[in-house]
Amino acid sequence: MSYYIAPRFLDKLSVHITKNYLNLPNVKVPLLLGVHGRKGEGKSFQCDLVFEQMGVEAVYMSAGELESPDAGDPARLVRLRYLEAGELAKVRGKMAVLMINDIDAGMGRVDQFTQYTVNTQLVHGTLMNIADNPTNVQLPGSYNTDPTPRVPIIVTGNDLATLYAPLVRDGRMDKFYWEPDRGDRIGIVSGIFEVDRVDHRDIEKLVDTFPEQSIDFYGALRSRLYDEQVRQLIEDVGINRISQRVVNSTQAPPEFRKPDFSLPHLVDMGQALVREQKRLQELRLVEEYNRTIGNRGLGEINMTAPQSNSAKPAIAPPSTISYNGQPSSTRLSPELVSQVNQILGQGHRLGIEYVDERRFRMNSWNCYAMFQDDGSGAIAALESCLNEHQNDYVRLVGISSSDRRRVVETIVHRPIGKAVH
């Protein structure tokens, strides 16, 4: 089976990998390449196809390896894997890369329920150090005077903005947003159904029928076509004997006839998958649970206590103005209430974050609460946060509900004496 490699993807990876093995005069080459985009678009699989075509040796890490009950282990593992990739390039005489899949799942800070651990800090610091000194990577407790072979690092993720900002800055990490266009989708889906001899015109119509679906959708669609035959096998063998039939059986493996790959049948099965997706989105049980947890502990808010306007510039005299149908605050300025309602009115999740002076310089914010479709609760929580953190920075964050990207970050309160830039 031959799979489709998107030309843009091949160009970006091949240039980045090759450039890291060249000695370009007076050129600062970023060691890291961050491939990001929507879930299920085949980022990791496209990387594997490029590695295979280029003859590149890859050493892999997953997001689950970036955390450990023992502090320092993940950072040490990153260095070990980097040195292993360098040894592969040296011994086998081929280009090698270190590949870290879904890095934002292991190191990203999404909301107030994401724990920021010592290991998260150490892994961020380790990757920054390797990016700055790629030929001098040492393990704890030892020092090797020989230069370390330079090896490019490729990371994949859905939202790289959740990582520590200095790690993803230009010069350390080159970014590539992967969003396959219609031609790419048709090419990739044609590869999925190649062995099934599906007509190319049917592939085009199938892609056009589900233009908003990710690449993984079509792989799941092909798998769903075999459900009927598997169900028939269970009925023929008996549900109480199916385990003995398919596991360590002395009989020949079951054979299945070719399913119906006609376009109408593919569309019907695809629409069934879409209906399941919509049910999942409409229930939103986890979001409702998180909203309940986020609202706990706010306590009763004193709406009449006198406030100093100089200490809290976000607080205003009593007001009865309402915005976007939401009840207004009696103490927040109309502009601030408008910002809250504007973020929620666009369908985003609203986060309230705070940080003290020392951590503000490190850009290490703490989440106070998270809301969606609850303007009055968000306004009440913001008032409470401003009351409790008069000497801290407070900001509003808008998070896209579809792909969890941060689309808004606005500081609404600064400590006394700190100018607003």
Automatic annotation (TrEMBL):
Ribulose bisphosphate carboxylase small subunit domain boundaries: 323-415
InterPro entries linked: ATPase_AAA_core (IPR003959), P-loop_NTPase (IPR027417), RCA-like (IPR044960), RuBisCO_activase_AAA_helical (IPR048571), RuBisCO_ssu_dom (IPR000894), RuBisCO_ssu_sf (IPR036385)
Protein's UniProt keywords contain Nucleotide-binding: yes
Gene Ontology molecular function: any one: ATP binding
Keywords: ATP-binding, Nucleotide-binding
Entry coiled-coil feature ranges: none
Family label: Belongs to the RuBisCO activase family.
Name of the protein in its database record: AAA family ATPase
Naturally occurring in which organism (per UniProt): Myxacorys almedinensis A
Highest classification ranks of the organism: Bacteria, Bacillati, Cyanobacteriota, Cyanophyceae, Leptolyngbyales
